[in-house]
Design goal:
Length: 443
């Protein structure tokens, strides 16, 4: 007795989750079938041993049958002649069905290998897609960081530009103040020269008055010389006092004017020098600030250019990755379509194989029924049981056995899987034409 299991999976739906579930169920069914085939191979080995024993018994039974045929007479010979051709044809059909089934098993194994290859390609595409998605997220984060840094540098550059404008305005204002101070210095210099001229004029006028006074004194002295002695002495004293008073007053006025002039001149010169130094210091500071800001602006422009180049490069890489992702998605969809087409083709082929196996099984069962009828007829020679009763009994038994040996269809997670169990028995000589090294398939 050899029992063979055949499964025909049919996957419904095209979503990735259902496809993965169907593939998993298909792999589990494949592993189960492998284990069953190994079990069948072990059972086949035991069966071969039993067949050898049965062949030995068969030879004895054949000899006994020949003896019985010689005893039974003409009816037994006629039955033998009538059914020997049918039995030979049935044996040939059974052998051909076994060979066809082995070829179909090899074809199913090849189709399973193709399915595994498509599944590996599908998983590889999924891994590549996940890797590309991670690269896109990484480049997107880098672009966001570069854009934020670029915005910060733009704000800093705008701030430095505003400071440069402010420093430029302050510098212009300080240059105006310096120009104004220089103009004031020039005016003060002109005023000093004017005052010096006035002092010179006053000194010349004073010298003129001194000469006039000296002339008057000489005239008074001449008059005094002509006057009496006591009058001359009196005028001499008065004249000396008057000259001394005039000289003191002149010295005081000259000294006071000189001091005022020097004080005013020193004050103005100090103010002009202070303003000039302050303007010069502020101008130097502004010049240094402007130079520093120009250097910073140059650095920022260089960084800005580098960031723009980096941003352009990242955008190109993102565009390339988008193209690659689109291509991978297209390949992924193409692989899915190919996988679905392959699954549909495998489903159709499996259904066709199931139909062929069912047809072969029906043929085999018919042959088994005929063999059983022949056996019953041979065994019924002794009791002379009617041929019609034996045929009806065998056909009824065969129909009941066929109904019990076909099981049902079950629905799991939207996935329809049909499992049909075939059981067949044969009696006679067994010849092994071909056998795989692992013992999986035997013809």
């Amino acid at each position: 007795m050899v029992t063979e299991m055949g499964s025909a999976p049919a996957v419904g739906g095209i979503s990735p989750a259902l496809s993965a579930s169907a593939a998993k169920s298909f792999l589990e069914a494949t592993d189960k079938e492998k284990k069953e085939m190994q079990n069948l191979n072990d059972r086949l080995a035991n069966y071969i041993d039993r067949v050898k024993n049965l062949e030995e018994q068969n030879r004895k039974l054949v000899q006994d049958l020949e003896d019985l045929r010689g005893q039974w007479g003409k009816d037994t010979s006629e039955v033998k002649v009538r059914y020997s051709t049918t039995l030979s044809t049935a044996r040939k059909d059974i052998d051909q069905a076994a060979r066809d089934k082995a070829a179909l098993d090899v074809k199913v194994a090849r189709l399973r290998d193709d399915l595994n290859e498509y599944r590996n390609r599908f998983e590889d595409i999924q891994r590549r897609r996940e890797g590309d998605r991670e690269h896109i997220i990484q480049f997107t984060n880098m672009i966001a960081d570069a854009q934020s840094e670029l915005e910060m540098l733009r704000a800093r550059w705008k701030q430095l530009t505003d400071e440069e404008k402010r420093f430029t305005g302050d510098n212009a204002r300080l240059w105006d103040d310096l120009t104004k101070a220089r103009n004031d210095l020039d005016e003060e210099t002109l005023g000093r020269i004017d005052f010096q001229n006035q002092v010179q004029t006053l000194l010349e006028e004073l010298e003129f008055l001194r000469r006039v006074h000296e002339q008057e004194v000489k005239e008074l002295q001449a008059l005094l010389a002509q006057a009496p002695a006591d009058t001359r002495e009196f005028f001499k004293n008065e004249l000396a006092l008057a000259i001394r008073d005039i000289k003191d007053e002149y010295d005081y006025i000259a000294k006071q004017g000189r001091q005022d002039m020097e004080s005013w001149y020193k004050l103005k010169v100090s103010e002009v020098q202070g303003n000039a130094n302050r303007v010069l210091m502020e101008s130097n500071y502004q010049r240094e600030e402007v130079k520093r800001m120009r250097d910073n602006i140059g650095d920022l422009r260089g960084k800005f250019g580098d960031l723009e180049n980096k941003n352009s490069q990242l955008e190109k890489e993102v565009q390339t990755l988008n193209y690659q992702l689109t291509d991978d998605q297209r390949q992924y969809e193409q692989a899915l379509n190919e996988r679905d087409a392959t699954l549909r083709r495998l489903k159709d082929e499996c259904q066709q194989l199931v139909a062929e196996l069912q047809s072969l099984l029906d043929t085999k069962q018919m042959l088994d029924a005929e063999i059983a009828i022949y056996r019953k007829m041979l065994e019924g020679e002794e009791s002379r049981v009617g041929l019609r009763q034996m045929v009806e009994q065998v056909v009824k038994t065969h129909s009941l056995q066929q109904q019990e040996e076909t099981d049902s269809t079950r629905n799991v997670r939207g996935e329809v899987q049909t499992k049909t169990t075939f059981q067949r028995s044969a009696k006679g000589n067994i010849t092994i034409a071909e056998c795989e090294p692992n013992g999986k398939y035997i013809m």
